[in-house]
Every structure is written in structure tokens, then in C-alpha cells.
Design a protein that fits this description.
With 232 residues, the protein is of the alpha/beta class. It contains eight helices and six strands. The two termini are 20 Å apart.
Length: 232
């Protein structure tokens, strides 16, 4: 079994390298590189990542989190999903409370964060303008999520962070031949859908649009990961 895990981890690293070098979406490539050049004042002294961002976490994870896309001055700056912005602060604080992360904060790729039994990825690997990807861009990027799903063979629970992340997860697991449905599951915060041997949990995305307005509270997000532990 240890050999299988090592093989999966190696294949994930190959996939991660492929993602980082991707330039398939001209609009996204121009935007992420423009943001990395121009920066914002508070991060003016930092070198931005400015490239597509691979997923990260435990290669033998039983829990998969699928978000929307990197933030322009978060992941696009730091080079890691949900790292260096307020959304990540909310997410990793909740993961730490639930025992899936060794620390509650995420500031950069060398901050010591380790995920246990959990892998974090997204429907889109580049920061989109106004945080609004085009359907064709999500479609182009789907192959990377599909490959991750095939390599993360121990996943039992999938959390969709936001409607786009939730629906992207459903589609790739269906494309991988892992699930089918007669009626497509409907997104609703805290809803749990069992399909074959997998549980899909929908959550509001921990974006500032949701957390600042109170649509998503810290308690609501904590409850998502309590459900993850219950069903997993």
C-alpha cells in the first residue's frame, strides 16, 4: 500500500508541474501576469507567483475540497491555493479546528502548513478578471481536475466551496465514471448528497462577499467540517 501512495504522489507532482506551465487560456494568462507585474501597494515589495496554481495536500486524502479559482492577490501572489487572503484565513482556521491542518493560518508556500487527510484544489487554476471565469475557461481547465480525481483514489468526501466548485466536482466525478444521477444534486449550504461510494457536501464559498455580509459565518463553516467527519 505504501508503494501505491508513493506512485500517486509522484504522479500528482508531474500533474502539478504541467498545471504550472499551462497557457491555454489567453485572457487568463494576460490577466494573471498583468496583476503579477503591477501588484497592489500593500504587496509592492513581494514577487508575485503569476502562474497557474496546482492543488496541494495529502496524496492519500479521504477529503477533497474544490473551490472556484485563485485570488488575484492571494493565490496568484503566493502560488498556493487559498493562501495569503481572507478566504484562506477562514478556510484553514476551520480545517485546523477539525484536525485536517497542522496550523490555522496560511501566508505562503514556505509557512509550514501541512494538510492531513485533505487535498485542496479548484475548478480554475488562474485568477480570473473580476473573479468571473468564462465557461470556456472552466471547460479547458476541467482536464486537470479530472486527472486529480483519478489520482486521489482514497477520497470519500468531496466538499464543493461555492456553486461552481460544487458543480465542477460533480461533473468530473461523473466524467471519471465514479458517479451517476437521475436528478442533478442541487447546491445548498450544508446539503449532503451520497452518490455511489462518495459523499458530496455543498458549502458557501468563504469569500469576503459571503463572510463580510454574514451569509457565511465561522460557525456555519465549522459545521461543514463536522459533517465531513461524520460522513467520512
Amino acid at each position: 500500500m505504501a508503494g501505491t501512495g508513493s506512485c500517486e504522489a509522484g504522479n500528482l507532482r508531474v500533474l502539478q508541474d504541467e498545471i504550472i506551465s499551462c497557457r491555454r487560456c489567453p485572457r487568463l494568462t494576460r490577466w494573471r501576469e498583468k496583476v503579477a507585474r503591477e501588484k497592489v501597494r500593500r504587496f509592492a515589495d513581494e514577487e508575485y507567483w503569476g502562474k497557474p496554481i496546482p492543488g496541494f495536500g495529502d496524496p492519500e486524502a479521504r477529503v477533497l475540497l474544490v473551490g472556484l479559482a485563485p485570488a488575484a492577490h492571494g493565490g496568484n501572489r503566493t502560488g498556493r491555493m487559498f493562501t495569503g487572503d481572507e478566504s484562506g484565513n477562514w478556510l484553514f482556521r476551520a480545517l485546523h479546528k477539525a484536525g485536517f491542518a497542522n496550523q490555522p493560518a496560511s501566508t505562503g508556500r514556505s509557512d509550514g502548513l501541512v494538510l492531513r487527510d485533505c487535498y485542496v484544489t479548484a475548478a480554475l487554476r488562474c485568477a480570473p478578471p473580476q473573479n468571473r471565469p468564462l465557461p470556456v475557461e472552466i471547460a479547458r481547465c476541467r482536464r486537470y481536475l479530472l486527472e486529480e480525481v483519478k489520482l486521489l483514489t482514497r477520497v470519500q468526501v468531496v466538499v464543493g466551496l461555492g456553486r461552481i466548485g460544487f458543480e465542477a466536482a460533480l461533473k468530473v466525478y461523473r466524467d471519471a465514471g465514479r458517479i451517476t444521477w437521475t436528478k442533478k444534486p442541487v447546491f445548498g449550504h450544508g446539503e449532503v448528497t451520497s452518490l455511489n461510494d462518495l459523499a458530496f457536501i455543498a458549502s458557501f464559498h468563504p469569500s469576503q462577499q459571503n463572510t463580510f455580509t454574514g451569509r457565511l459565518t465561522e460557525r456555519m463553516l465549522d459545521q461543514i467540517f463536522l459533517k465531513v467527519k461524520e460522513v467520512g
